[in-house]
Design goal:
Order of helices and strands: EEEHEEEHHHEHEHEEHHEEEEEEEEEE
Shape: globular
Radius of gyration: 25 Å
Largest sheet: 6 strands, mixed
CATH class of the largest domain: Alpha Beta
CATH architecture of the largest domain: 3-Layer(aba) Sandwich
CATH superfamily of the largest domain: P-loop containing nucleotide triphosphate hydrolases
CATH topology of the largest domain: Rossmann fold
Number of helices: 8
Strand order of the largest sheet: 6-7-8-3-9-10
Helix content: 10-25%
Structural class: alpha+beta
Low-confidence stretches: none
Amino acid sequence: MASDLSVRNLTKRFGEFKAVDEVSFDVPAGSFFSILGPSGCGKTTLLRMVAGFEAQSSGVIEIRGKDMADVAPNRRPVNLVFQHLALFPMMSVAENIAFGLKRRGLKGAEVGRRVEAMLERVGLPGYGPKSVNQLSGGQKQRVAIARCLVLEPSVLLLDEPLGALDLKLREQMKVELKKLQAKVGTTFIYITHDQSEALVMSDRVAVMNRGRFEQIGRPQELYGEPATPFVARFVGENNVWSGEVTASDAAGATIRTDEGFVFKARAKGACAPGGRADLYLRPEAMRIEPREAEGLNTFAVTVKAILFDGANSRLLTVTEQEHELLVSLPQNRRFDHIAPGQRITVGWHPDSGLCFPAMGAS
């Protein structure tokens, strides 16, 4: 599949500091690609280089096969949607969307036709005469995107555009943005520190840390098969144990944790006997009072609290050694009998846990 954006060995230095460090990736045409990472990891700097607002120190940026070196921001076939949208409050919705077209020299009926067509595409037909101040947060979001899409960019860049919205609207807009991207077919490159936004909306996600990409893959791959400890910690929730590897083979590794538990798990990387390792386990992988314990890693915990959150409800538990663990409450069984202070047995299958060599271990 052809790529709308191709980046090769892209680097940005500020003095001795590398904000972006030898990053390479391709974004297929018509896809939704997210860059996920914590604040300060370099993702906005990367986006600004693609947009042309920041010059790269080295590396190549190609959009639809054309090298963007020395191409000014206003000459690049990209548009950028900012977190605070930057709509003009003194203009109507139609005037906001038409702004870029008029700057390009379009006039009269052609401008009106394109604006109306774009309002239809973003689900706001008839909203042209309205004032920006009459719109909800989600409607403003769509107007900001329409103002960019009407210029027919090859790539739309979105820099944390949902960050200023309240939680409920943000949840709604995640679905709306995904549907909108699929409808208009424009390539979206989306920057966020919110893992839920990236996982829900994206075809592929790059997880960024300290200027580099740790892993690029489908959301399901990042969640189920994290390639590094950072990805395991940053994408989704994990319980973590540290300990020493006592045995390893093709099937996985056995780790004796610092609390004295002996667990079997899948191995990621060289988890050699005698070496230190960290074991990661999703809360939903833990079974409460398993009916069939054979083949499982089982142990006892005490319930500290019930964290009710509808379908995402969990138990906060603690081992005898005061190691806190989160355990998901499954929806297909009732656990009304469980109460804080109660001691219960939990278990998990060795295939559910991932064992990584400890940070700094050889």
